[in-house]
Design goal:
229 residues; 3-stranded antiparallel β-sheet; 4-stranded parallel β-sheet; single chain; alpha/beta; Rossmann fold
Length: 229
């Protein structure tokens, strides 16, 4: 973890699963000692990239942290709409940084659609969904989820926004409009070059990275947020 500037406390709940992944990768690389593995990571960019992806915790579910989404619907989105002040031509731009498999992105689209039904006029919503792991981006773009991802979701939302299949559920195609999926590493790359009204930065940086890296990355991300956003 120290090699990637990651935080030990952030991994306390998922440590066993992550250690198993890394142990398998070490054997695949022919490394039997941690020291040999670290030397490999210093010399092999592909092994480093693979290890970084293995350290990514992508387990999530729709509307995780229910209170946050209540605040989004009751306070944050109404505030953003007031600031648009009737200008429904300009899209409201959102960045989900470290979007993983897309549950957060589609939760926002569902919430936006629910607010839209109660409002007379709404601006277009454009979401930039970025992650450093191409594999989870591909899964997010497909929009197929196991039943565990929708656990606790009201049946009315399931019926309206999901299509059941043998493995779980597929997100409605209507929710995919306005989402820009993009491979992007906010740790090593500058923000996408767009000024955003709202930025989601929840698990990855806040939970898993150390304070030194946060001090570098936070200001860079905040520069992409419009004043008052």
């Amino acid at each position: 973890l120290q090699f990637f500037s990651l935080s030990w406390p952030g991994y306390r709940k998922v440590r066993k699963a992550v250690k198993k992944r890394l142990a398998r990768h070490m054997l695949d690389c022919g490394c039997r000692k941690v020291g040999d593995y670290l030397l490999l990571l210093q010399e092999d960019p592909e092994a480093t990239k693979k290890t970084r992806n293995l350290l990514t915790v992508s387990i999530s579910r729709f509307f995780r942290d229910r209170r946050l989404w209540e605040v989004m619907g009751e306070c944050v989105i109404p505030k953003l709409l007031r600031e648009v002040d009737g200008n429904c031509q300009r899209p409201l731009r959102v960045w989900s940084a470290g979007c993983s498999c897309g549950e957060e992105v589609y939760s926002l689209r569902i919430l936006w659609d629910q607010v839209r039904k109660r409002s007379s006029a709404m601006p277009p919503l454009e979401v930039w969904a970025t992650d450093a792991n191409q594999g989870v981006l591909d899964r997010a773009r497909m929009g197929a989820y196991p039943r565990s991802s929708v656990k606790g979701l009201p049946s009315l939302l399931l019926q309206e926004y999901f299509v059941p299949n043998s493995k779980g559920f597929i997100i409605s195609d209507a929710l995919k409009d306005g989402i820009h999926w993009m491979k992007h590493d906010f740790i090593t790359e500058l923000p996408p070059g767009i000024t955003f009204d709202l930025i989601f930065l929840r698990n990855n940086l806040l939970t898993y990275y150390g304070q030194t890296l946060k001090a570098v990355v936070f200001p860079r991300i905040l520069e992409a947020l419009r004043p008052g956003g």
